């Protein structure tokens, strides 16, 4: 019997353990932290051996295959030892894809991937396909393959998950954009991170499709130097394309083999140029999979977005409070500030991942009247924006930050939580950070 060791007992780890058990592996789950009770109950129910708060090497190094959680860096000694022994170390995406014949749509990018994944799922499901959504979002992909395998999957995939693939090949791959993010995991080399994102197309053939932002110079330059085998379907806001999506007279045009869908951008439920691009990517997939044009249009008109992503919370005294906790990097915050139409009080900060804030200067100068720092160490933010904004204050809790914003805000202002950083210093994750923001706003 082959031995599967799962490192990390979160959603992807426990899902992989369930699938491994079903496929006849001897399974062992090991987590260096504590395992949540809900996941423990599942492991006990499936009679899967597990341990927490340690990694017992004698039970790990004898594995035939290891699935590691995306949170564990490749450089840690345990992973190095496994590599030295020639043990295959893979991600959940790779493991699960070996046990399904489904057509897979894989979506990656520094920003926009959650919205694009949910929007694509929304259109295809309403178009009549039996489709599940997984990866970096919702239920574990592996668990779904084990329990309710469907003919189609749309998967949101992070660079960390792509680092652990060997044969995974989505029929349709989407790359939304590439901006510097997570460089702490890539030896602070942007080119390593770019190569990681492009692994989504690594195993594609001429029968597959690669949808990408043709306005993103990082992507187009890399493609010129490292061509992919799949059929290219670019999308662009600035120029016409022969096959793919483009903007003309405020209309989105989706064109595949002379088959065309046209939709006015004014009808999109989600506002902002970045959402025009997300809609283009999702609609291109729908057009490829022969979803009816009316269905595509209706779905783009009625999809209202993702929690914690430019989410309007409440209007109080004519001040709009906006939760963009999912903005965990500078580029995501750029989109948020760019979408602000009036004077903004900006709540920012957390765990800095090697951020370069300079691209935000023009937007901050134009739109931000006060900055509220919310992090354990805010020195980098204060140094970056000290000359742009007179009013910068530091806070240590969400409640304090929101109360301060309430005092500063005047009629027609926005209060925007868009941290540009990870959340792990004061919060469990960006969802908890966003929920605390919403609670604090509702208590005003």
From TrEMBL:
Q: What is its main location?
A: cytoplasm
State the UniProt keywords alphabetically: ATP-binding, Cell cycle, Cell division, Cell shape, Cell wall biogenesis/degradation, Cytoplasm, Ligase, Nucleotide-binding, Peptidoglycan synthesis
Which reaction equations make up its catalytic activity?
UDP-N-acetyl-alpha-D-muramoyl-L-alanine + D-glutamate + ATP = UDP-N-acetyl-alpha-D-muramoyl-L-alanyl-D-glutamate + ADP + phosphate + H(+)
Q: Which residues bind ATP?
A: 109-115
The EC designation for this entry is 6.3.2.9
Q: Which GO terms describe its biological process?
A: cell division; cell wall organization; peptidoglycan biosynthetic process; regulation of cell shape
- Provide the protein's localization: Cytoplasm
Say which domain of life the source belongs to: Bacteria
Molecular function in Gene Ontology: ATP binding; UDP-N-acetylmuramoylalanine-D-glutamate ligase activity
Q: Does the keyword Cell cycle apply?
A: yes
User: In this protein, which residues make up the domain named Mur ligase C-terminal?
Assistant: 308-421
Q: Which family does it belong to?
A: Belongs to the MurCDEF family.
Q: What is this protein called?
A: UDP-N-acetylmuramoylalanine--D-glutamate ligase
Q: Which organism is it from?
A: Aquimarina spongiae
Q: Which gene encodes it?
A: murD
């Amino acid at each position: 019997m082959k031995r599967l060791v799962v490192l990390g007992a979160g959603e992807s780890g426990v899902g992989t353990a369930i699938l491994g058990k079903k496929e006849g592996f001897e399974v062992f789950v090991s987590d260096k932290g504590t395992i949540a009770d809900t996941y423990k109950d599942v492991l006990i129910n499936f009679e899967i051996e597990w341990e927490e708060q340690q990694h017992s090497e004698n039970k790990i190094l004898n594995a035939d295959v290891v699935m590691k959680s995306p949170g564990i860096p490749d450089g840690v000694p345990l992973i190095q030892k496994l590599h030295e022994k020639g043990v295959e170390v893979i991600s959940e995406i790779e493991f699960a894809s070996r046990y399904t014949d489904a057509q897979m749509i894989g979506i990656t990018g520094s920003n926009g991937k959650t919205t694009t994944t949910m929007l694509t799922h929304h259109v295809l499901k309403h178009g009549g396909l039996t489709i599940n959504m997984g990866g970096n979002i919702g239920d574990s992909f592996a668990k779904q393959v084990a329990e309710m395998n469907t003919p189609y999957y749309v998967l949101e995939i992070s660079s960390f998950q792509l680092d652990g693939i060997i044969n995974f090949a989505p029929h349709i791959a989407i790359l939304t954009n590439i901006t510097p993010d997570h460089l702490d995991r890539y030896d602070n080399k942007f080119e390593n991170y770019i190569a990681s994102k492009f692994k989504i197309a690594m195993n594609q053939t001429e029968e597959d499709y690669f949808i990408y932002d043709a306005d993103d110079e990082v992507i187009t330059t890399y493609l010129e130097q490292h061509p992919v085998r799949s059929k290219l379907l670019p999308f662009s806001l600035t120029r016409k394309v022969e096959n793919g999506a483009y903007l003309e007279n405020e209309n989105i045009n989706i064109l595949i083999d002379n088959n065309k869908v046209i939709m006015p951008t004014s009808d999109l439920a989600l506002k902002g140029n970045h959402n025009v691009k997300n809609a283009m990517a999702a609609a291109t997939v729908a057009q490829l999979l022969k979803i009816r044009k009316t269905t595509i249009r209706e779905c783009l008109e009625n999809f209202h977005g993702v929690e914690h992503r430019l989410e309007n919370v409440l209007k109080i005294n004519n001040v709009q409070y906006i939760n963009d906790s999912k903005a965990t990097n500078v580029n995501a915050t750029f989109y948020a500030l760019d979408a602000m139409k009036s004077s903004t009080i900006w709540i920012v900060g957390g765990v800095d991942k090697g951020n370069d804030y300079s691209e935000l200067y023009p937007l901050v100068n134009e739109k931000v009247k006060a900055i509220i720092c919310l992090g354990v160490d805010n020195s980098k933010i204060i140094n970056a924006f000290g000359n742009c904004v007179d009013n910068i204050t530091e806070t240590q809790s969400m409640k304090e930050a929101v109360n301060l914003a309430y005092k500063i805000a005047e009629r027609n202002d926005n209060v925007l939580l868009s941290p540009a950083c990870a959340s792990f210093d004061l919060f469990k994750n960006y969802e908890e950070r966003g929920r605390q923001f919403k609670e604090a706003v509702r208590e005003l």
